[in-house]
Amino acid sequence: IELNTEHTYPRLTHHHHSIILLSHSNRRSIRLKKSTMRSVTLSFLRLCLAALFSFIPANAAPNPLEVTLRNELPDSVIIYWEGPEGRVDNGKVDSKGGQIVLSTYSGHRFSYAFGGLLYFVDIPDGVPHPFMVLLAGQSEIGVECTTTSEGSTGAVKKLVMRIIPWWSPRGASQFISLIRTGYYSGAALNRIVPGFLTQFGISADYRTRTDY
């Protein structure tokens, strides 16, 4: 790389895998071999890494997580932490929408008994505020509603829905909670496309829908 030699700026030239710095004032040459440059680069990287890790305490403990366990089962359950020295009682969770918030860590395991069987809950890694639904090994919740047509004297028809909590745990639990409180009682089915979708969601009761 040649710079303009008519000025007093230094001139850099590439010559035989070396870098030569030429000064017009004293014409001294300083030759830096490739190995020397590599050593300087590695030293600089080590210095940067040392500065970076100096801000992290060697004995820093992991931050605790707040995990919510939501019980959608018909019976209440007792939550136990599966600790290294045995089970530790963490409290009771009421049935049909009861929940408990625990301060714990990623990788911890909890358990509860239902129907004579023991079920485990593993706290996931990388989730800031886990929300987990207790279903005793089931993957979905069935909901059955009855529908009628306005002014119709025909038979009442059923609307069956499958709620899959692991798709959206908070959303599924909120929907189940609204059903239990009667929010959708008398709600209109605004749009029906056979074999595709049914749209609804506005409560028939004014005070109920304004509260939410």
Keywords:
3 helices, 4-stranded antiparallel β-sheet, 212 residues, 3-stranded antiparallel β-sheet, elongated
Topology:
Elements: E1 11-15, E2 18-22, E3 29-32, H1 34-53, E4 65-71, E5 77-83, E6 86-93, E7 98-104, E8 109-114, E9 117-122, E10 131-134, E11 141-147, E12 157-163, H2 169-180, E13 191-193, E14 197-199, H3 206-211
Parallel strand pairs: 4-10
Antiparallel strand pairs: 1-2, 2-3, 4-7, 5-6, 5-8, 8-9, 11-12, 13-14
What is the helix fraction of residues, given as a range?
10-25%
Class by SSE composition: alpha+beta
Overall pLDDT score: 80
Query: Nearest-angstrom radius of gyration?
Result: 34 Å
Folded structure, characterized:
The chain is α+β, with helices and mostly antiparallel strands and 212 residues long. Helix content is 18%, strand content 37%. It has three helices and 14 strands. The chain has a four-stranded antiparallel β-sheet, with no helix packed on it. Strands 1-2-3 form a three-stranded antiparallel β-sheet. The N and C termini lie far apart (71 Å).
What is the structure about, briefly put?
This protein has 212 residues and is of the alpha+beta class.
